[in-house]
Amino acid sequence: MKSRWNDSDAKRTIQQWGSAHSQSLALRLYAARLIGTDPSLVLCGGGNVSLKDTHQTLLGNEVETIHVKASGFDLTRLEPPGLPAMDLSQLLRLRDLDSLTDDAMVNELRRSLFDASAPTPSIETLVHAFLPHRFIDHSHADAILALTNHANGEQLAREAMGDSVAVLPYVRPGFELANAVADLYQEDRDVEGIVLAHHGLITFADDARTAYEKHIALVDACERFLDGKRKTPSRPAKARATKSNTQRDDLEKRATVIAPILRGLLAHPTGNEDHPFHRSVLEWRTDLATLQHLQTESETDLAGTGPLTGDHLIHTKPWPLLVDKLPWGDKPGLRTKLQKAVDAYRHGYRDYIEKHGGSTENLDTAPRVILIPDAGLFAWGPDKRAARITADIAQHTLDVKSQAKVLGPYEPLPQEHLWDMEFRDIQRVKLGSDERRSLESQIVVISGAAGAIGAAVADSCAAAGAHVALTDVDDDRLAPVVQRLEETHGQGTAIGLTMDVTSESSVCDGYAKIVQTFGGIDVIVPNAGIAHVAPIDQLGVADFRRVMEVNAVGYLLFMQEGIKILKAQALGGHIVINASKNVFGPGKDFGAYSASKAAGHQLGKVAAIELAPHNIRVNMINADAVFGDEETPSGLWATVGPQRAKSRNLKEADLPEYYRARNLLKARVYGRHVGNAVVFFASNATPTTGATLPIDGGVVEAFPR
Q1: 431, 461, 476: which is the final residue of a domain?
Q2: Is a pLDDT exceeding 70 seen at residue 561?
Q3: Angle in degrees, CA 281, 369, 286, rounded to 5
């Protein structure tokens, strides 16, 4: 490992933050980001840093302060608000206490803040406060954990780093650890760092660069030590062979089959009839290194052992579920074996909780990480971001355990320590609020999503907490819609897929990609549509067939493939068909469109009858005259607008006003109104199936009857 400190970059950071804050704080941020952006040092918001400085009060007094990274903040993107300042003297008084509960500690940390609205500082704040140095860095470096997570971890750490470090056996993070670290430093003030067993490395100095470069030097010494113990030198990832296309195809087929089954098995029952399950979202990994770990006999058992550090538990749980030798050619047998494996995990996890005095009431006992040697690593979370964090940690854990095995048997923390860290309130707050939006963790797939209605439906569903899969034949129009959704609702919330709904293979391939990305689906929105304007006696059969192929056959294929996935999950679900006002109130010269929409509408009614035993609800929306906007105009109206205007002796620009004026409410209908209706149906707000909801401002001839 090499230092990545660059004086020019450091100066730019001072220019960015130094005018509003001290230069020391700017350099603290710079070094923190250097640590945060190195995954071999910290992952997914882990690690910690601090700075001791001064603060001028409102009365003009200079007070000694300490800035510590706030709980849940990520070093990679750390900014001044993520380093709240506290009165150091107040914190130092706590050193005289014999004990301090977590609640009392958090209260003291918040009481010491200069800004009452600042985020809560880290659980490790007192570790940083009780050491005298201005700059302190704390990481969960891979190489450190690879040494300490052994029965003789202290000896290995000393062999690698010599007397330049002090080594502390595992101590419960918080007040106990802070006192233990301070006591250890008092015994030898010449050490350059302190190694925390199963927890990482602390280095310190009175300037940012020295503290950081001490850290790098010690980690580098451990990496060199590990390399020296290997029989053959490790190969960097770039040098590894790549999977063949055939292997990749096999993996994708397997993931497509088992992901929906797993998603159903992992769902957490809520006891609420209207919202019976908490669902999860998938992150699937099949890089060659991960497959090699899972398929290497000496590492398979190792993969099922405990985490590298207690900080990872809130994302991964104490151990993954390992499932081997699945009967891929036997779907019923496949489901049965997965069911037994998940049930066994749930049983073991409940025993683990109850053994340590915890309650399993309302507790999600399903695994977060599932390892399948011939299919890959499946990580699950309440959203894509959480699933990616879990996958990153799980993948990294496999890599580090592989490194650690060269030194002897890997030894995780005892279960009592794991349980303590996993269910500690001060840790679990990092997971964020328990408030759930109406479509939280649900996956919505929409056809024709590049158009005005499809894009608006996607936006409404994402705003309600869903992940959205947008499909369309027009990839050029689709890409900016997906980009806008991710910018608005967060990275990972939307994907775009080129799909021709008239092609069985295209629809099948599209759904497979959705399953591989998110794990399954919950809401199907058939929406893709085209139109053709011609009176019946002039309507060409080819034109009629073309419209029917997209608007009727396309709806059939789009529903059929999605229904297979909904049934595999066994969680219920929704189909919300975007039909049309023309189903009940057709217009002249619109025979092909009206007939095709009526066909799709009727398919929905039949599907409602057939799918009710599976708790899959099917409802229809009859919208009228959605023109879109400048960002996402309606492709349908771009096609038929000129002719519809001509038939009514209007200018094309006057069409929106014409359609607004003809409805009872004199309302303009927007795509977001259709999106709101989809959210209403998909959120189980009412026990409704087989219904038609007009969104047309009130067109009398189109009243459902």
Answers
A1: 431
A2: yes
A3: 85
The CATH number of the domain holding residue 212 is 3.40.225.10
Position with higher pLDDT, 57 vs 156: 156
Tokens of 363: 């507790």
Cα–Cα dist 91/128, whole Å: 10
CB 383 within 8 A of CB 332: no
Instruction: Tell me which of 229, 249, 273 is where a domain ends.
Output: 229
487 and 596 belong to one structural domain = yes
CATH of the domain at 387: 3.40.225
Looking at the DSSP bridge assignments, the partners of residue 136 are 50, 204
Residues 521, 384 share a domain: no
- Over residues 606-632, the pLDDT tens digits come to 999 999 999 999 999 999 888 766 676
Mean pLDDT of the chain: 91
| Secondary structure (3-state) at 624 | coil
Tell me, yes or no, whether 476 lies in a domain: yes
Higher pLDDT, 304 or 498: 498
Contacts of 460 (CB under 8 A, 6+ apart): 672, 675, 676, 678, 679
Distance (Å, whole) CA 263 – CA 253: 16
Q: DSSP letters of 462-523?
A: HHTT-EEEEEES-HHHHHHHHHHHHHHH-TTSEEEEE--TT-HHHHHHHHHHHHHHHS--SE
Tokens (6 digits) for 397 = 């854990």
Report which of 489, 490, 493, 488 is spatially closest to residue 470, judged by C-alpha positions.
Answer: 493
Q: Please give the angle made by the CA atoms of 420, 424 and 429, to the nearest 5 degrees.
A: 150
Q: What is the predicted pLDDT for the residue at 248?
A: 85
532 alpha-carbon distance from chain centroid: 42
Q: Which of 414, 429, 353, 430 is nearest to 172 (CA)?
A: 414
Query: Could you tell me the pTM of the whole model?
Result: 0.91
Q: Which domain holds residue 554?
A: 443-633+668-696
- Beta-bridged to residue 468, according to DSSP, are 444, 494
Evaluate if residue 266 carries a pLDDT over 90: yes
Residues making up the chain, counted from first to last: 705
